Amino acid sequence: MSKRKTGRAGLSALVVDEDKHHTNYMKYMLPRFNIQVTVYTSPIKALNFLKDHAQDVDFLLVAVNMKEIPGFQFLDIARKMHQNIQVIMMSTTTTMDITKKCVELGARFLVKKPLDAPTIRNLWQHLDIRALRMEKMRNLLQGLTGEHSVTESESIERSGDQSASETESRNKSSSDVQSSTGSNTVAWSPPHYPDPENSETMGNDCEGDTTSEAGTTASK
Q1: Which of 60, 73, 102, 218 makes an SS bond possible with 140, Cβ 3.0 to 4.6 Å?
Q2: How far apart are CA 158 and CA 196, in angstroms?
Q3: Per-residue burial over 125-140, b = 16 or more CB atoms within 10 Å of its CB, e = otherwise
């Protein structure tokens, strides 16, 4: 069996096209070239998706001819929402005027619909792969920073609970001793407990809460 040649693996695309036949075709074809795909036949719904999930897609494939929101207008809105988002436009006609308009609005390229196999295989060549990696790195580091913040907060909370528990234990111990000795006791000094805040042992236990080194590749 011959091995099928594919483009760059691991990419994800958002396809926006009111042509349901073409979106269904793209849902079938893109995964064959190792490109994960999400499709929308409604440009408005696609923009709503991008508000919270732009970091989940590497690039957009947007049709020029759409009625709900024209492709050029969609491109302009998407670029204003996310300046670094990479968009490839699609059109049944690829004239010089259309190509020029796409470039002026920040599109990476204009491809002819319907996209054939060689075009899909070479989509990655029109993308800034280095920028995608940097964006993913930023998103990953932001996620790790958030996780460390939660871990540190939980550690501080646990330390506070432990100190409160020890204080309560000391008070209870003092009360029990006073009750057992009765009123004939002239003076009684409670045993000395080390202060948790000044204890070297407690200090050593907290050293594990420092932020660990993070680094992988990303995108945004």
Answers
A1: 218
A2: 13
A3: eebeeeebebbbbebb
In this structure, what token pair is assigned to residue 190?
């409670």
CA–CA separation, 6 and 93 (whole Å): 26
Q: 220: closest CA among 146, 145, 142?
A: 142
- DSSP summary character for residue 220: -
Which among 85, 35, 74, 127 is positioned nearest to 220, based on CA atoms? 85
pLDDT tens for each residue of 108-133: 999 999 999 999 999 989 898 787 66
Task: Decide which of 139 and 4 is more confident.
Answer: 139
CA-nearest of 117, 64, 30, 91 to 39 is: 30
Tell me, yes or no, if the pTM score tops 0.70: no
